[in-house]
Amino acid sequence: MRDFRLMWAAGGLDNAGRWMDTVVMGLLVLDLTDSAFQVALLFVFRWVPMLAFALLSGMIADRANRWAVMMLARTVAVAATAVILALVLTGAVEPWHLFIASFFLGCLFVMEFPSRRSLIYDLVGSERIVSAMSLETINTTIGRFAGPFMAGLLIEFTGFKGPYLLLLVVYVIAFALIMVIETRGPVRVKPSYSFWGTVSRGFKYSLNNSVIRSVLIITLIMNAMAFSVESLFPVVARDHLGVGAGLTGILISAQAIGSLAAATVIASLAVVRYHGRIFCLGLGLQLLSLLFFAISPWYPLSFLMLLLAGLGAAGYSTMQSTIILISAEPEMRGTALGMLGQCIGVAAVGGLAVGIVANFFSAQAAVAMSVSLGLVLLLPAVFFSPLVRRPISPPDEAA
C-alpha cells in the first residue's frame, strides 16, 4: 500500500542518516579528543533518552496521533543536523556540541520507536507483520551499510563537511515523505489511567506475560553487553587494525551486508511459527561473532566476523519487536514497545562501562570482556524462557 511504501522509504533514509551521523560523530570526537572514553560517552548521550523516556514514548504511542509524533521527530532531526553543519562549516565545533546533538537525536529515536512500529501494525495487521518487520530490518541494514560506507568515503575526500551536508539533505527528504502520508490516524481517546497508573499497569502486564518478559530480559542483557560495544568500533579500527576513515566505514558496514542477506530470507518466509527460535539463534550468532571480532588481529577476518554478527542481528532484531507486537493485547502494544525501548536504553549504561574499561585497558579488551559476560548471562536467560519451546501466537489464540 502507498502509505507503507512512503513510511518504508522515509525509514530507509532515516536509518542511513542515523548510522551515518553515528560514525561521523564518533570519528569527529576521536579526531578532536583522541579519547576512546569520549567516543563511548557520545554513545551514552545517544542512548540515555531511550533509557529515560522509552516507557513514556510508548504511552504516547497509545494515546496520541502517531503520524504527528513521527513528524515532530523528523523536525528534530533536521534542526539538530543543521546546527552541527553550521558549526562544522565555521570551524567552531567542539565535543560538547556533538554530545548535545547526539542526545537530541537519541530523543528523536525514542519518540519515534513505538509510534512507528505501532502504526506499521495498524497498516498491515497481524498476518503480514513478520514480512513488514523483516522489511523494516532490511531498511535498517541497508542504512547500516550505506550510512557508514558513505560517512567514511566522504570524510576521506571532503573532511567532515560533506557528510553533514548530505545528512541534512537526507533528513529533509525523509521529513517530506512522512508529511505526505495520508493514513494519519485519529488522536486517541485519553485512557482512564493516570500516568503512574499506566506505568504500573504496563510494567505488570509486561512482566506477567512470559513471552514478553523473556524478550525484555534478553534485550536488557544484549543491549548492555553486546550492542554497547559498537561505540568502540572506530577506536578498534584505528588503534588495533590500523586503518583510516574509509576502511573504518567499510568495516562497520559489514554487519549490514550479513543482516541484509538474513532479513531478505526471513521476509520471504510465508509462515513463521517459532519466532523465538530465530530470535535466540540470531543473538547467539551475533555474540559469538563479536567475540571473535574482538580477538581478531587481521582486518579481513574482522570484516568477516562483523558480517556474521550482522546475520545474527537480523534474526534477533526482526523477531524482537515482532514477538511483542504479536503477543501483546492491542491496547497495550505501544506500552509494551515502550518497555522494550526501556530495555534497549540500557545500552547507555553499557556504553559508559565499556568506555571506562577501554580507557584503562584497550577498546579491543573492552569489547571482548563485555561480550563474554553477555554470553554467560544469556545462557540461563534463554534456557528458562518459553521462546524456544513453543510457537508465538496472538493473545486470543494463546488463550
Task: Explain the overall architecture.
- The chain has a single domain, classed as Growth Hormone, Chain: A.
- It contains 16 helices and no strands.
Label this structure with key terms.
82% helix; single chain; Growth Hormone, Chain: A; 0% strand; 399 residues; mainly alpha; 16 helices
Count of domain modules: 1
Number of helices: 16
- Rounded mean pLDDT is 81
Query: What proportion of the residues is helical, as a percent range?
Result: over 70%
Low-confidence stretches: none
Order of helices and strands: HHHHHHHHHHHHHHHH
Question: What is the end-to-end distance?
Answer: 32 Å
Number-wise, the strands total 0
User: What percentage of the residues does DSSP assign to strands (E)?
Assistant: under 5%
How large, in whole angstroms, is the Cα Rg? 20 Å
Structural class: mainly alpha
What is CATH's topology name? Growth Hormone, Chain: A
Describe the protein's topology.
Blueprint: H1 2-33, H2 36-63, H3 66-89, H4 95-124, H5 129-158, H6 161-179, H7 195-208, H8 210-225, H9 233-240, H10 245-268, H11 275-295, H12 299-327, H13 333-344, H14 347-360, H15 363-383, H16 395-398
Helix pairs in contact: 1-2, 1-4, 1-5, 1-6, 2-4, 2-13, 2-14, 3-4, 3-6, 4-13, 5-10, 5-12, 8-12, 8-13, 8-14, 8-15, 9-10, 10-12, 11-12, 11-15, 14-15
Task: Summarize the model shown.
The chain is an all-alpha fold and 399 residues long. 82% of the residues lie in helices and 0% in strands. The chain has 16 helices and no strands.
